[in-house]
Amino acid sequence: MPKQPAHFLFSNTFPGALTGVIALSFLFLVTSSFAGTLIRSGGSTTVLPVVSKAAARYNGLNPEVQVTVSGGGSGVGIQGAGSGLLDIGLASREMTPEEVKKFKQQGLKVHVIGRDAVACVVSSEIYKAGVTALTREQIRAIYEGRIRNWQDVGGPDSRIVVIDKERHRGTRHVFMNYIFGNPKARARGVRLVTGSNNEEQAKIAQSNAAIGMLSFAWMNEEVRGLDLIEGDRIIQPTQDNVENGTYPIVRNLNMLLSEKANLESRKFLEFVLSESGQSIVADLHYIPARKTEGSHLAGKVPGL
Q1: Which fold has domain 117-244?
Q2: Which of 16, 77, 101, 183 is most solvent-facing, going by the fewest CB within 10 Å?
Q3: Half-sphere exposure of 137 (CA within 13 A, CB side)
């Protein structure tokens, strides 16, 4: 993460949806003495790095504005924006029908700031041992507990450490929707549930036999993304395959604002959608909204 400027506050140490909301309340209290304009944002840890860097850049240009950024997951971002605890919610999934109904009166608007993909990832030891690609059915069987040893899918004789995410996380929603056809699917074979991308990345890197789900931006030499086998095709987890529509596990990166959002919040959103803000999206290995076909956000934010 970038060095935090004087008027930038970041928090990502509160796991779970409930404690995430508590964290948002805490952030409000500790920043309430700031004399300028306060913009409170939080939610998805996938969107968080983009907004963190954008906030640092925006605060430097506008010292009278303080942008706070917190984590907690997409569910926390949607809940926070809908309840008024946040000026801007961050989400890497779409709102559920229940959330749309719950916050209908608040007039939440979803603004796409970029696009991302989720990979099925494994510990580097498993990848180097020969497990570099799996079918959807194999991944499903692993998460259901029907396949428990890497040897059953061409790997070493080692028990599989199956890692899941908290159920409100956007990364989990898109991954489970692809594997099970249900974003809320329960996975009986799971041995560990994690929260943020940082946490899951660390757990997989520390293990020598783990499988999990992460945004492309969080893959590295210790946490390797698997190719997906679909029929006679092998689809690699690359940005090119996301952009050309070949890679199937994709989602939008969203900022959520109420239709009654204050002017400064809408100005910050426009900054994120500007050339300067979109360069941050690209630098973090996401796909800018301006490159997303059919995006309605390549222009001005309504009301500015």
Answers
A1: D-Maltodextrin-Binding Protein; domain 2 (3.40.190)
A2: 101
A3: 3
Output the six-digit token pair for 88.
Answer: 């801007």
User: How far apart are the C-alpha atoms of 210 and 202, rounded to whole Å?
Assistant: 11
The pTM for the full model equals 0.80
Residue type, 118: V
> Alpha-carbon distance 291 to 174, whole Å?
21
How do residues 148-195 score in pLDDT, each as one tens digit?
Answer: 999 999 999 999 999 999 999 999 999 999 999 999 999 999 999 999
Which ranges in the chain are annotated with CATH 3.40.190.10? 38-116+252-288, 117-244
State which fold the 38-116+252-288 domain adopts: D-Maltodextrin-Binding Protein; domain 2 (3.40.190)
